[in-house]
Design brief:
With about 180 residues, the chain is α+β, with helices and mostly antiparallel strands. It has helices at about 60-65, 90-100, 115-125, 155-165, 170; strands at about 1-5, 15, 20-25, 30, 35-40, 45, 55, 70-75, 80, 100-110, 130-135, 140-145, 175-180. The strands form three sheets. It has a five-stranded antiparallel beta sheet with strand order 6-5-4-3-7, with no helix packed on it. Strands 1-2-9-8 form a four-stranded antiparallel beta sheet. The protein has a four-stranded antiparallel beta sheet with strand order 11-12-10-13, with helices on both faces. A hairpin with a 4-residue loop joins strand 4 (about 30) and strand 5. The protein is elongated. The termini are far apart.
């Protein structure tokens, strides 16, 4: 890990791309040591256990983190992080969190050209009314009933669990993803 020079004002740390990943609970983290991870959105540190790992971070998720002001930029090998919240200093973050709305959906990680097969499978499983397949960044993603987002991560996790229990061979690599928008009063 290397620090970027101070004459680049919005940048803080360059890390190898494989040092960022998604946990099973949907949290984006950076790994600082063998068992030491930090949540990208809250700055909280956690002890990492291998069973917590869910998936490598995708380009789409990195672009979401750019929109959230956490990542400056990325390429295939490196990620440029902005300054993360310091340990136990969440006042600024709490204000930011209150101004954002997160909507969850499921990324099957299957290529977009399989959307018709996924739609057919959902129909065969009797789940077509519960899930609305779409293509996003050339992946088949699943929104909730009538194309609406899951409003809570727990709802998305229950939906993911339902899919993996009904058709594990098709949905085993499905991950929870989200979009964020500004809260409008």
């Amino acid at each position: 890990m290397s620090k970027i020079s101070e004459n680049e004002p919005n940048l803080n740390t360059i890390i190898p791309r494989n040092g960022l990943f998604v946990l099973a609970d949907g949290t984006f983290v950076v790994r600082w040591g063998e068992n030491d991870i930090q949540e990208l959105e809250t700055g909280r540190y956690r002890v990492f256990k291998s069973e917590d790992f869910d998936s490598p971070i995708t380009d789409y998720e990195l672009n979401q983190l750019i929109s959230a002001g956490i990542v400056e930029k990325f390429d295939q090998e490196k990620v440029w992080l902005r300054e993360l919240p310091e340990r136990n200093k969440f006042d600024k973050l709490a204000t930011w969190e209150l101004s954002r709305i997160r909507s969850y959906y499921l990324n099957t990680t299957l290529p977009g050209n399989l959307i018709d097969e996924i739609r057919s499978l959902l129909n065969d499983l009797g789940l077509i009314r519960m899930f609305h397949p779409r293509i996003r960044d050339d992946f088949v993603v699943l929104w909730g009933s009538k194309g609406l987002a899951f409003t809570k991560i727990d709802e998305a996790e229950k939906a993911r669990h339902l899919l993996t229990s009904k058709a594990p061979e098709a949905f085993i690599n499905t991950v929870i993803a989200f979009v964020e928008t500004d809260r409008r009063d």
